[in-house]
Amino acid sequence: MSVRIDITGLRRERVAVVPSPLAELGMALHVLAEPGHHPGPQGWVTGVTARLDAHLADRMCEADFLWRTTFSDLFMPFAGIPGRETLPGETLADDLDLLDKLTDEQFVDAGMEFVCTPGYDSQARSVLSDPERRGLVLELAAARGPRQLRFARRLLADPPGVRAWLRQFLEDCDEAFFAETWSRLHHPLAADARHKTELLRHKGLAEALTAVSPSITLDGVEGAAGRIIVDKLVESRTATADGGLLLVPTSLGRPHLTVLFRFGWQPVIQYPVSTAEPAAPPSVEQLALRMTALSHPVRMRLCRNLARSAYTTGELAQMLGMTPPEISRHLTVLKKAGLLTTRRRGRYVLHQLDVTVVARLGSDFLEGVLR
């Protein structure tokens, strides 16, 4: 399982390594929402939480599914600008200006990513103009919960209003805690970007990608018919086509290795930076061999989704392209192994990976499902 990026004809000068303040703010919000995924910055989480205004803390819960369970592409708007070669802004204000340049269709589709509708990596009908897709989106949002449904209805009814709300919220986060954090993180991220750029210039794309992450490989000849393979527990593909490729370093995002492969957008790989580079993480195949209780590839894919959020059997069936009975059988195996928690919300039964239990099984597996 992997994400494949077709780079046929990609020129070296169209590959850029650039930090993004907005992408890092998205990671900051994720870490605050899911500190269990990120033991490293616990001190930072404690400090920010202790001095956070109660009103802003409440506002963080309004749409935290945009960064808690999904890394919304709204945090990488530069990838959606026509031409597919726009770079992240130097400041958060610059990145937010790029967010304002997305069309309503792009903004709404990226904002609705949390409902996991099919067609992320292929051309899909606009939810704003297609009643059938709008109905599906609202149905899926309702299954996620009342907050998600309220947000979906608001987004579909008033995209400009949600844009204004989101920008104001992010600016308030910047004033409250992120400006100080970014002033500390920006320089090491920029230094890492310069280092990767030098590797790219002098040793080529393959060397640069290996330095970015051992989970990324170049298959083929640079500049000819080639592709980048990112080892993740997800199967998808995208292409640079006539655009470029962006590599965006993150400090707070470890261990997540995030790939933006939305149809029509510039491919982006957001990779974690650390002062001490760990040994190469095990491949998906190695993980499957080691974790005998999780020996089936479908259950590995289920763990990837359930590590981030709770889902119903029907939602998981749609995401994996399987039938609900098939998914139910795999969930039963995971539950008997003591790896899942379940809870009922109305007529829905939600399943989620018990991250604490999985962490005791091995940090390699946990890093693999969170990659």
Entry keywords:
four-stranded mixed beta sheet, single chain, alpha/beta, globular
Description:
The two termini are 13 Å apart. Mean pLDDT is 88; it is low at 275-279. A 4-stranded mixed beta sheet has the order 3-4-1-5, covered by helices on one side. Strands 2-6-8-7 form a 4-stranded mixed beta sheet. It has a two-stranded antiparallel sheet with strand order 9-10. The protein has helices spanning 21-33, 42-51, 54-60, 92-100, 104-111, 131-144, 146-157, 159-203, 205-212, 284-290, 297-306, 313-320, 324-336, 355-361, 363-370; strands at 2-6, 15-17, 216-220, 226-231, 236-239, 245-250, 258-260, 268-272, 340-345, 348-353. The chain has 371 residues and is of the alpha/beta class. 48% of the residues lie in helices and 13% in strands.
Summarize the structure.
The chain is α/β, with parallel strands linked by helices and 371 residues long. It has 15 helices and 10 strands.
